[in-house]
Amino acid sequence: MPTPNQATTSSPIAQWVSQAVDQTPVFDLHTHLYPPDFGPFMLWGIDALVTYHYLIAEAFVADPRPYGDFWGMSQSAQADWIWKTLFVERAPLSEACRGVLTVLSKFGLDPNCTDLTDYRRFFAAQDPHAHVDAVFRLANLHTVVMTNDVLEPGERAIWLKNPPRDHRFKGVLRIDPLLCGWPQVGQTLTACGYGPSMPEVRRFLHDWIKRLDALYVAVSLTGDWRYPDDSQTTRVLQEAILPVAREMNLPLAVMIGVSRQVNPDLRLAGDAVGKSDIASLQRLCVQNPHNRFLATMLSRENQHELAVAARKSPNLLLFGCWWFLNNPSLIDEITRMRMELLGTSFVPQHSDARILEQVIYKWTHTRSILAEVLTDKFTDLEKTGLRVTEAQVQKTVRDYLSDNFSRFLQRK
């Protein structure tokens, strides 16, 4: 039998991991994407990519100017300024900039252009449905999960028309207005045909979960969220959200740690990050053992305690490096730490993509990091004398990229 050092020297682990990570299709459990039949809700193309809110904020730091001047521009003019500011006049070192360049390269476009003319011509020539197919192929996705706010009149109107359903785009009912805006949201419920009461909130949830065929219900919470307390948020949770989720066997996804509108002049780009209270999440899980929860947190400072909390709650599935954590150095650090504490019982990443093509770069970059981390971890196992097999590697990768989430959805 070879010694651990000899086994490592001749190990095919890196090749097995690389092949499995590259070839395994992803179940992307949280995005803001829509298929073409949702019209203006489907965001795609070079102008949308370059005017993404990450890049808007970055451009204002690089070249400050009056906010009103920017918001008064057309989207194409905004994109031209951001491209010039971040990609031409400066090295595009940020992850958000690199992501745009990765997308262009994956489509066979030259990322060295000094203006957006050729890119606009390319995207304008694409049929939206065929383009979705191409994006899914380049990102190697089998399914993406949308985030659907049906209290928003425009989106609700589309769902009420029963649009064609692309089976690759799964619905999720976003409940931020209900959970964080009670009782003021009662007026919106009334306009939708529901009364301003807890039984009517439950009826709304039942109706729209069925219409969306929702995989889960989701909410984004600020870092000062506490559970339980005497707030209206706790009341809506206990009297409506949690009972309906139990009845319909759906998880509740909580994404915690956003600090809203620290700079409102930046609009969607004006949100920031705040540390969260993990004890509240633990109490939510422990006090509601017949509910299931998906959770992610925005602050790096929360990540170790969050992983420890996930070890104590079988009804909690930890997922992703959300928003400001979607940077390679942090994904690497957090994924290694989670593996060391949770083994294979978490979902390493979701794209959180808002622009269709973003899934290409987010999964290209994530796969590279995941392959490096898994190669190191399986090599560590081999050094103990354990015989690592290709089948074991393939199963682990499937679990991380797709099956952990699928199984969690199917649990009772």
Q: What keywords describe this structure?
A:
412 residues, alpha/beta, TIM Barrel, three-stranded parallel β-sheet, 19 helices, globular, disordered N terminus
What does this protein structure show overall?
This protein is an alpha/beta fold and 412 residues long. The protein has one domain (4-410): Metal-dependent hydrolases (TIM Barrel, Alpha-Beta Barrel), CATH 3.20.20.140. The chain contains 19 helices and nine strands. The strands form two sheets. Strands 4, 5, 6, 7, 8 and 9 form a six-stranded mixed sheet that branches. It has a three-stranded parallel sheet with strand order 1-2-3. The longest helix has 26 residues, at 358-383.
Main pleated sheet:
6 strands, mixed
Structural class estimated from helices and strands: alpha/beta
Instruction: Bin the helical content.
Output: 40-55%
Number of strands: 9
Task: Output the number of helix runs.
Answer: 19
Unreliable spans: 1-9
Q: Strand-residue fraction? A: 5-15%
Q: How would you sum up the global shape?
A: globular
User: What is the N-to-C succession of helices and strands?
Assistant: HHEHHHHHHHEHEEHHHEHEEHEHEHHH
What CATH calls the topology is TIM Barrel
List the domain count as a whole number.
1
Radius of gyration (Å): 22 Å
CATH class: Alpha Beta
CATH architecture: Alpha-Beta Barrel
Distance between the termini: 45 Å
Mean pLDDT: 96
CATH superfamily: Metal-dependent hydrolases
